[in-house]
Amino acid sequence: MKNLFLAVIMILVVSPLSACYGNDDLEQAQETPEVTDRKILIAYFSWGGTTQQVAENIAKETGGTLFRIETVNPYPTEYTPCTEVAKVERDNGVRPELKVIVENMEQYDTIFIGCPVWWHTAPMAVWSFLESDNYNFRGKTIIPFCTYAATYRDETLAKIVELTPDSEHLEGFGTTNKNADVTGWLKKIGIIN
Hints:
Blueprint: H1 2-30, E1 40-44, H2 50-62, E2 65-68, H3 79-92, E3 110-116, H4 124-131, E4 141-147, H5 153-162, E5 168-169, E6 173-175, H6 183-188
Parallel strand pairs: 1-2, 1-3, 3-4, 4-5, 4-6
């Protein structure tokens, strides 16, 4: 009886749609993708895992390709020594050597760039990535995102924009929560429907 009731409800719901759209249009409407038609890369630098989780959340929503920005010489795993190295790099304008490069960067038209806030800005590893001779960001759409403990969100997002002057830029995102819901932001900037 329950199955019969569900079948009748389905017929009542689908029949008016078929009459309005025609069967071919109905099939097409049901197959409309949630993600806009873009080739998306999500490049991120993460030390403690928070930025990585946000990057993975973006990838889950967009279907984009993840790329982890890693340095040849890893940062210390303990917090205080890591902050000391990061401060020396920032103060001296050090561009740490990166471990790997993105293959076929030219295939991507939309690139998310993510990082934690380190010493009021993006970590120098991100500067290395964005200033690399391996990539041409001209004409690409850059979307910055960052994670932070207390503040300097806007300064960090602005630095990513500043380092990609020949690109188009969409509104960035910053969060203190690795499980932050990115869906509303991605819809607002037109990356997903």
